[in-house]
Amino acid sequence: MSDTRISEETPAADTDQWKVGKGAYVSLVAVILLFSGAFLKVDGMAWLGAFDFTTLGGSFGTMKDPASNTFLGAGGVSAKAGFMFALSLVPTVMLALGMLEIFTHYGAIRAAHKLLTPLLKPILGIPGHTGLALITDLQSTDAGAALSKELFDNKQITQKDVVIMGAWQYSGAGLINNYFSIGSAMFASLTIPVIIPLLVMFVMKFVGAVFVRFVLNTVYKRDFENE
Question: Where is the signal peptide (predicted)?
Fold first, then answer.
């Protein structure tokens, strides 16, 4: 990724880097479909799950005794238990970052910047190329956080952007994955379509991020004057 910070007054020499071709849009659509959960559970078309990030991430096998335990075991505490839990996050994060690098090579970041800036800039005040980190967070909070860190380390976003992105990401973190895996226990009790609560939670992610942006622009305005 480029070390250039995208701003409203981008030099002409750097603007060429963000030119978008047809391949970039195809790459962007592919990465959105992969990480958005659109293919996670499609009635009558289960094969589409093969193109979903959660499906590709897979799951760990279980121990035979007790059968309900993964390789993490049961009853672990302190540093060793924490290390094993962290180790369990490595496969999906590595997979997500690797696939995002491929899509970035084909222009997904450029396409996201062009398409999402008109949406994200007025609402959240962040550039469009942060969109992939937000989309990734819908299924993998760890991959979304790692991608956000990469953008910050490459000076493509400011510290203020990171705070706003964090507010969006960790309000209903891993929304798609958690909703269909944990929230599915409540589906039978719903008197409204299953998609409605999901949409409400998605909208509230923006509400929370907008509130944080307002606080940063008022109460903590001086903290970001030099950015």
Answer: none
pLDDT tens-digit series, residues 174-210:
888 788 777 777 887 888 888 899 899 999 999 999 9
pTM score above 0.70: no
Is the pLDDT score of 217 beyond 80?
yes
- Domain span holding position 179: 12-60+77-224
Does 160 map to a domain?
A: yes
- Tell me the two tokens of residue 116: 């999402």
DSSP track, 12-47: HHHHGGG---HHHHHHHHHHHHHHHSTTSS-TT-GG
Residue 202 contacts by C-beta under 8 Å, 6 or more apart in sequence?
172, 175
| Number of domains observed in the structure of the chain | 1
Contacts 24+ apart (CB under 8 A), 44-51: none
Indicate whether 31 belongs to any domain: yes
